[in-house]
Amino acid sequence: MRATVPAVLELFTVFLRLGLTSFGGPVAHLGYFRAELVERRGWLDDEAYADLVALCQVLPGPASSQVGMGVGLLRAGGWGLVAAWLGFTLPSALLMFGFALTVTRAGHALQGGLDGAGWLAGLKVAALAVVAQAVAGMARTLTPDAARLSVAALVAGAVLVFPQGWVQPLALLLAGVAGWRALPAPDLGRLDRLHVTLSRRAGAALIGACGALLVALPLLASAFPRADVQLFDRFVRAGALVFGGGHVVLPLLQAAVVPQFLDAGTFVAGYGAVQAMPGPLFTFASYLGAASRSGLNPAWAALVTTCGVFLPAALLVAGALPFWNDLRARPGVRRALAGLNAGVVGLLLAALYSPVFTSAVEGGMRGRTEVALALVTYVALTAWRVPPWAAVLCCAGVGHVLL
After folding, report:
1. Cα separation of 171 and 349, whole Å?
2. Which DSSP string corresponds to 352-390?
3. Which pLDDT belongs to residue 107?
4. Is this structure's pTM higher than 0.85?
5. For the CA atoms of 317, 321, 323, 325, what is the dihedral angle to 10 degrees?
6. How far apart are CA 222 and CA 230, in angstroms?
7. Phi-psi label, residue 62: left if phi above 0, alpha if psi -120 to 50, beta otherwise
8. Looking at residue 192, what is its pLDDT?
9. How many helices (H) and strands (E) does the chain have?
């Protein structure tokens, strides 16, 4: 479809509505997308939609946002991709920006100060339960055998013992190599259903641009040690290394901003809050930019971090679409992806302990109360199927009363 103004505006309004109403995380988002884009509007058939989802599941980045970007690209070219991303992202990004201003400007005026506020403590407990649920669910799917479970355990151990930021991407790289050499290739279903008009040359240029950013930005941040350049560099690298869903961005962003730009408690409180928002979890970056001790205008910092964390996802999904039908048929690629997915389970397991558990649970009787609340919340999420946003709001209320 041509990138006409009506087509771009239609994409923006459709995805804005989805961004306002899509609660429940990436898996739920994909269900909302299918109902709106396949069943209601007929923009794709079920097979094409499934193939687009399969591509976005194996690329680094936020899967649901990338599916939206892919639909926008197929419908109206590059401007369609931008319109779909902006519509789906804007509501949550604005809400998280507002929450960051609340935390940084009003937090110390609250009884007990920012660190002692019970509602913030409740948000940290909610984050503990949500991440524990993510670890358990991803482990069942992505580490179903001894080999992949071993990869996950080794990655978790390496990240916990060596907490330096460079250890995380190195551990993921080694997990991918281990998968390529030792794991069986997973079945990705039927092949060759997407019909993409973007040329392979253009796709290669976009992938090359993503790689060039990963090389050039650290050099630029070293040469120009401005806070906005440093934040953009770190958030681009985090966005380029997130395999396995939105929750996996947690340890990467923690390494990017804690402790230089943000303390661990404020970081985890924001991660709890984003669970209650519609739209993509990656808008956690909007909160981190606005709440950071960067010396920048909060709106500018939030724009830098939000665009930075989503930029690799946009470049990679647009660049990979022309190659997907051939690439997904290669067993070696699929084996490496199996190793990477096992590695991200280990990465998230390490993050469950630090910073999530260590920031959410204190000592003494208060710590016991926080553990009890986390256990009840975990059961509510997994057994009672309470939506994450409802669990987060309940934790904030209980924390305000008890903590």
Report:
1. 13
2. IIIIIIHHH--SHHHHHHHHHHHHHHHHHHHTS---HHH
3. 54
4. no
5. 120
6. 8
7. beta
8. 46
9. 19, 0
CA distances, 207 to each of 112, 317, 338, 349, 364 (Å): 49, 9, 21, 30, 51
At 46, phi and psi to the nearest 5? -60, -40
Model pLDDT, residue 108: 44
Residue carrying the six token digits 């990869």: 151
Tokens for 255? 């390494």
Q: What share of the chain is helix, strand, coil (3-state, %, to 5)?
A: 80, 0, 20
Mean pLDDT on 265-281: 86
Question: Contact, 99 vs 290, CB < 8 A?
Answer: no
Name every residue whose Cβ is closer than 8 Å to that of residue 39 and which is 6 or more positions away in sequence: none
Q: For residue 394, what are the contacts with CB-CB under 8 A and spacing of at least 6?
A: 377, 380, 386
SS (H, E, C) 137-183: HHHHHHCCCHHHHHHHHHHHHHHHHCCCCCHHHHHHHHHHHHHHHHC
Distance CA 38, CA 328 (A): 23
Residues 6+ apart with CB under 8 A from 6: none
In the block, residue with structure tokens 């964390």: 309
Structural contact between residues 3 and 79, judged by C-beta atoms closer than 8 angstroms: yes
Give the helix ranges, DSSP H, for 196-297.
Answer: 200-223, 227-240, 249-257, 264-274, 284-291
Cβ burial, residue 334 (10 Å; 0-12/13-18/19+): buried
Q: Are 59 and 317 in contact (CB under 8 A)?
A: yes
The amino acid that residue 117 corresponds to is A
DSSP element (H, E) containing 75? helix 63-101
